């Protein structure tokens, strides 16, 4: 047996049995870290959705406290466990107080960022301020501002559902997964609406025609479009751009004679398509102020529809929406649980809820495991 010297000490090394090396540290480095799911507010609806998601994932809901100071109203977040090196998913539903919900999300994301979380993914089924995604007159694109704030707070990824405009994804400098609720709503139509084969899918305006066409093609049903509006939603005259300029001495060039744009005239409300003796199913992404839906239901009733459903992903149902629905010709309003609406359901039994926690849980699992998200977008075309 050969003898080797190390620092003046004799050591016997067997050639037939070389020393065993430990690779425990290498294995620890390549293993994937854990993940936690937190609720960004303490409302019943948000915690309930978070619990449904964690139950499907087989994990426990993360321990945290989110509250507002009683004297100052400031948002405070206390994370009660270590998140170092983990993927963190923040569930945030948007209640009536949208600005408080946004601050809760920002403060929690920043708290997790400073606690050395590896990745911070916001699960925001209804993305707030999504209607303010275009420049209108002298306003601002608030949705772009919110995207920048979320990135600054520490979010690295967002999971959302049925953005009001798909182009909103371009406001972010990190990945955005825009899931679809239509498979769940289509399943509801097939299982809960008797004789749905005698139905027709209705777009309450030409702008909603693409969404309605997608539903109609998947269900193999007819399509109808309501054209025209009973009132003007916006008036350029209120902008002040047609007001006379201040009188002042004009010197030099007086300007060019530009051709005037012909003013738009809204046609009277008409229904393009046959709804007589049929079930009418109005589809949209958001149902908030329900006056347009109620007016559409009246028109469809006059045209011979004997039952009227309204299907939407996000049921904001603000102001007097429950009372107006209860008194209208609408037979049923079906929305998902992306937005809390328990109070509205108590006020109006016509409102029904479809659970979408399954697809949110699957998205969380796939993102954490580094799996492809293509499975969640099967048979979804670019214009859907």
UniProtKB/TrEMBL annotation:
Purpose of the protein: Seems to play a negative regulatory role in 5-phosphoribose 1-diphosphate synthesis.
Leader sequence segment: none
Name of this protein: Phosphoribosyl pyrophosphate synthetase associated protein 1
Origin species: Amphilophus citrinellus (Midas cichlid)
Biological process annotations from GO: 5-phosphoribose 1-diphosphate biosynthetic process; purine nucleotide biosynthetic process
This protein's UniProt keywords: Nucleotide biosynthesis
Domain of life: Eukaryota
Domain annotation Ribose-phosphate pyrophosphokinase N-terminal: ranges: 43-154
Gene name of this polypeptide: PRPSAP1
One Gene Ontology term, aspect cellular component: ribose phosphate diphosphokinase complex
A GO term, aspect molecular function: ATP binding
